[in-house]
Amino acid sequence: MSAPERGRFVVVEGLDGAGTTTQAQRLAEALRADRGVEVELTKEPTNGPLGAVLRQAIEGRLTLDPVALALAFAADRADHLFNPVNGVVAALEAGRWVVSDRYVLSSLAYNRGGATSREWIAELNRHALAPDLTVFVDVEPELCLRRIGARSSAAELFHSREQLVAVDRGYRELIDGGHVRGPLETVDGSGSIEQVEQAIAAAVARVLG
Hints:
The structure is a single chain. By secondary structure, the chain is α/β, with parallel strands linked by helices. The protein has one domain: P-loop containing nucleotide triphosphate hydrolases (Rossmann fold, 3-Layer(aba) Sandwich), CATH 3.40.50.300. Helices cover 50% and strands 12% of the residues. It has a 5-stranded parallel β-sheet with strand order 2-3-1-4-5. Helix 1 packs across helix 9 and helix 2 runs antiparallel to helix 3.
């Protein structure tokens, strides 16, 4: 009996408020319906024990030094990828597709610098699997702020205008500098949910057939 064809790993990236969670969910649903493939929808931080610590830090319920925060993200990602029971690699080898809401590019773009240089974070993640496609949902920080304000009043670690502008700059530097591993497609995320969904579907079709 031959081994199943390897699945595909698709990552959806963008600022907080860009709609990455919604679009990752819709992409997974569309792949199941249109291609008839098994799809696992996942995210970073994950729902695992390390991810739970990270979510506490993001929500301001726990304070971590920037170095510890970066190490925790890298450790959560390693478990996300290589966990033998529910990891990304195991799913891909079993022929399932994986759609992830955020991945390595987020760690690089959201990095605050200082003791945690972009080069250091890239080295921490050098064993991370390259996605078959990264989709960057491009939304201006001001629009992201309005969307965040409409959905939640909670103050999270990266939800200030200053932080969103800095992260947006980080994403653009990485994309323009060719620092994204694997194929990259940028889609306009300022339209309706349905318009963005269609743009992502078109990007997946262009790159993955």
